[in-house]
Specification:
This is Signal recognition particle receptor subunit beta. This protein has helices at residues 7-10, 28-35, 49-54, 98-102, 121-128, 150-157, 173-189, and strands at residues 14-22, 44-46, 65-67, 71-78, 81-87, 107-113, 135-140, 165-168. It has 199 residues and is α/β, with parallel strands linked by helices. The protein has a single domain (17-189), classed as Rossmann fold (3-Layer(aba) Sandwich), CATH 3.40.50. The strands form 2 sheets. The chain has a 6-stranded mixed beta sheet, with helices on both faces. Strand 6 (107-113), helix 5 (121-128) and strand 7 (135-140) form a beta-alpha-beta unit. Helix 2 (28-35) crosses helix 7 (173-189). The longest helix is centred in the last third of the chain and has 17 residues, at 173-189. 34% of the residues are buried.
């Protein structure tokens, strides 16, 4: 999926913006990094005692950094389409940035850590309450097992019928790329009538 675009072709290319959202430590930064054809721009900062007091790190004991603004990456899907990926911060104290990050996006991937479903409520709720932004839910397989059926997860997170729920591995380039393709296909089949969160 690397870019092999000549300067003559660039004028005919279309670019699009998607959002990678989810709870703390769900795999958003990993997803962006695994598929981006450029070194991803991240705003990772060392976790502090203040963040550890608010974020459950029991399932991610080796996590020592967290996104404090956003992640950014780029992927060329074919000779005519470039996708820009914007990853949201997962911690609650940074949610005020979400509207600005989501504005203008054609859709979003909500990454869910199935070991900590409760951490995904806020992200799912955000897009359920902003139906002008098509979204899919991507269940990140950390240990190779989902532990729940898709129907159980849909019910637990109160995801409305028709929203695609897929499982993937954010660490794997092919698997992460497939999640992005699923989002684009869904967004194209569910066009919005107005720009996402138009200001």
């Amino acid at each position: 999926m690397a870019s092999n675009v000549s300067s003559n072709d660039k004028s005919s290319m279309v670019s699009t913006k998607i959002v990678i959202a989810g709870g703390f430590g769900a795999g958003k930064t990993t997803l962006v990094g695994s598929v981006s054809e450029i070194p991803p721009v991240t705003t990772e900062a060392m976790m502090t005692e203040a963040s550890e007091a608010h974020d459950d790190t029991s399932s991610t004991p080796t996590k020592i950094t967290t996104t404090v603004a956003m992640d950014f990456g780029r992927i060329t899907l074919d000779e005519k389409l470039i996708m820009y990926m914007f990853g949201t911060p997962g911690q609650a104290r940074f949610w005020f940035m979400w509207d600005d990050i989501v504005r203008g996006a054609v859709g979003a991937v909500v990454v869910v850590d199935v070991r900590r479903l409760a951490d995904s409520f806020a992200a799912v709720d955000y897009f359920e309450n902003n139906p002008q932004v098509p979204y899919i839910v991507a269940l990140n397989r950390f240990d190779g097992e989902l532990g729940h059926t898709v129907d159980e997860i849909r019910e637990a997170l109160e995801i409305r019928p028709g929203i695609p729920i897929i499982d993937f591995d954010a660490r794997d380039r092919r698997s992460a790329g497939s999640a992005l393709t699923t989002l684009l296909e869904y967004a194209l089949s569910h066009p919005t009538k107005e720009p996402a969160l138009a200001g």
